[in-house]
Amino acid sequence: MGAEAAIVRVQCFSGTHAIACALYGVLRPGDELLGVSGAPYDTLEEVIGLRGRTEDGLRGSLADFGVSYRQVELAEGGLFDLSAIAAAVKPSTRMLHVQRSCGYAWRPSIPVEEIGRLAAWLADAHPSIVLFVDNCYGEFVEAREPCAVGAHLVAGSLIKNPGGTLAPSGGYIAGRADLVAAASRRLSAPGVEGGATLGMNRLLFQGLFHAPQVVGEAIKGAHLVAHVMGALGYTCNPAAGAPRTDIVQAVRLGERDKVLTFCQAVQRCSPVGAHIRPIAGVTPGYGDEVVFADGTFIDGSTLELSADGPLREPFAVYLQGGTHWTHWVIVLREALRSIAELGGGVEALYAEEESDEPAAAFKRYAGRRTLRNK
């Protein structure tokens, strides 16, 4: 990670948990957390205190501990608005929060080079402020990680990229040694920052060893999805052929039923729980109805292959992972057939004419035999 220190713990049960430990480790009553990449991921809203159960007064949130929060939107093109950030910084601002991945927002994910630009500005203008990066979905996609370009602290989940689909649980926090130590004490207790590994060390190390290979397959799958869905007229983020800084591929389907249909097709093509039919529902940590398709060997392992999305405008589905890029061929074939049955306007996909551009795009990646079989 290019960091001074790190903790890797199976006791971190999610990326949000690891992020929360990092935030609580640094922030104190009267401090301000300033988001500089727009709104945080949905599950962090309750950690911050932006949303939650009002009957208990948002007990345990940063707001409950007297930590305030404001945010600055990204500039056009998904870059940091340094002038707006400079104007927003106050004497109480203790930490800048960056969400590297787009999450459920329709924006570009943030390249490591751009995080380096922010870090260089911060080191010159406000050297006492901590730069924290939510690194979920971004690990090993680029040649460098945020700490290598000046971020002070990063956190993420082992059931995403760095677990290589083998880690059954866990998360990591990496960065400046004193900040990592502070975060570890929020995970456990001062003086007892260790913790049982529960016999999982082999899986964590082997998962880390496999992680770059699996991330590479996930990126290939994301490119395939963007090429095929883009050729069919759906807006994709990132677009086909665009540079990547995380494994998330978003496709704007435009209709609630299409999001549900797509996720149900992903579940039918999954190695685990293929008989399950995902439906929209209220999930802890999310403010809107969400649908999840994740028929994975490790529950919630989005690096294996998953699709999800909130049931709100612009009705986009967010795709992650894939241990083999060819799995996305199977998923696309099933999903597009299901959307066609909805009247989704993809009938041209099944045309035999070489001149048909959507069909040609699909043939180029999936092969003529696959096309004819469907």
Question: Would you write up a description of this structure?
Answer:
With 374 residues, the chain is an alpha/beta fold. It folds into two domains: 199 residues, Type I PLP-dependent aspartate aminotransferase-like (Major domain) (Aspartate Aminotransferase, domain 2, 3-Layer(aba) Sandwich); 113 residues, Aspartate Aminotransferase, domain 1, CATH 3.90.1150. Helices cover 33% and strands 15% of the residues. It is built from ten helices and twelve strands. It has a seven-stranded mixed sheet, with helices on both faces. A five-stranded antiparallel sheet has the order 8-9-12-11-10, covered by helices on one side. The relative contact order is 0.12. The C terminus is likely disordered. It holds the Pfam family Met_gamma_lyase. This is Aluminum resistance family protein. InterPro entries: Met_g_lyase_put, PyrdxlP-dep_Trfase, PyrdxlP-dep_Trfase_major.
Summarize the structure.
The protein has 374 residues and is of the alpha/beta class. It has helices at 15-26, 45-48, 82-88, 112-125, 177-187, 201-231, 256-268, 326-341, 357-366, 368-373; strands at residues 5-9, 32-35, 68-71, 93-99, 130-134, 153-157, 171-175, 235-237, 249-252, 290-293, 306-310, 316-320. A 7-stranded mixed sheet has the order 1-7-6-5-4-2-3, with helices on both faces. Strands 8-9-12-11-10 form a 5-stranded antiparallel sheet, with helices on one face.
